[in-house]
Design brief:
The protein is α+β, with helices and mostly antiparallel strands. It is 44% helix and 19% strand. It has a domain of 65 residues.
Amino acid sequence: MLPSTHIADVEKSMRYAQESDDRIVFKRFDVSVEGDHRSHTVSYDEGLWTCDCEGYEHNNYCGHTMTMERVLGEMVRLGELAIAESSGEAVPATAQA
Ligand SMILES: [Zn+2]
């Protein structure tokens, strides 16, 4: 038989997950994004995305950081993607659909 604390934790996790918009804030993490030619390390730190690719070095955003913003959506604070779209510049074709 499962201890009652385990059951309480499961119930809590279900409720917290449903309320994730209010309860969960990503602070920092690294992910590997598999590009067409090689993989890139994308990092997130308190709202700032970085990537180890050349595109990021020139623009402070790139297809890899934008990919992560799309995948995670509102789970993370929008950064350069939101800026690019609101200024009407450098909007990828997929964003206009
Ligand atoms: Zn990149």
